Amino acid sequence: MDELKLIFDPTKEHLAQIESWLIEEDMNNKNGFYCTWIIIVDYFEKNRIGVLLLNDWAIGFITWSESTKMARIEIAEVHPGHRKKSYGGFMLKSLVEALKPKGIAVLDLHCQPASSEKVWKKLGFKKFPDVPGFDKENSLKDPHLYRIIVAHLKPAKAPTSKNLLILWSVEPYQADREQPRWVWDVTFHPNSSRLTFPIIIPAKRDWNLRWAIDGKTVTENKIKKFGQNEIDFGDFLVIESL
C-alpha cells in the first residue's frame, strides 16, 4: 500500500527531488513555481516548508509564513503527474493540524495564478468581506482568500443577549452615520474574562469596535486601540478575552 505523509523536516535530497520535477515542468509547460526556486530554498532554510512524500519520494510541497495568530500560505504545488488525487487537500489538512497547537487561528493566501481560486475555495477558503478596505484582496485579477481553522463565534443575525460586541467597517468618527456591519452575542467561561468561543474575522485596524452591556458602552475605539489585550493581527481581528 502506498504511504502518503507530509513532513516538516525534509532533507536536501527531498529538496533536490522537488527541484528536478519543477525544472521539468518549467521546460515542458512553461509554468509552475521553478521561477520562485530561490524563495522555496529560503523557506526550507527557515523550516517553513512541508514536503509531501509518496513512498518516501517528494511529490509536493507547501510553504508558509506565520505570526502570533495567523499564517500565510506562500507557495504550494503538487507534481503534475499526481494531481486531481486530493493530495493538495491532504497537505493543507496536515499543515492545519501542525499549526493549531502553535495558536494559529486563521490562514490567508494570495491566489497565484488567479485561476487557483476555485481550488482553494474547494478547500474551505473564502473571499474577504465585500467592504471598502478589502478592494485589493477581492480583485478579480489578483484575489486573496482566507480560512478560519479553529472553532469561533459567528456573528448574530438577530442579537439576543445583553452582552454585545459590535463592529463597524468604518473609523470611529464615521460610525454614527453608519449601521454596524457585525454584531456578536458574547458569552464567557465561568468566572472568567475569556470568551466561550473566540471572535475571528477579517478587519482593518482603524475600524470602530464597541463592547456594550445592557445597551451601555463599556469600551469603544479603533481596533488597534481597543484595549489591553492584543486583538489586531494584520488584516484580522482575533478576540479571545475581554
From TrEMBL:
Top-level division of the source organism's lineage: Bacteria
One Pfam assignment: Acetyltransf_1
Gene3D superfamilies, sorted: 3.40.630.30
Residue ranges constituting the N-acetyltransferase domain according to the UniProt record: 5-143
InterPro entries listed in its UniProt record: Acyl_CoA_acyltransferase, GNAT_dom
Name used for this protein in its record: GNAT family N-acetyltransferase
Lineage of the organism: Bacteria, Pseudomonadati, Bacteroidota, Sphingobacteriia, Sphingobacteriales
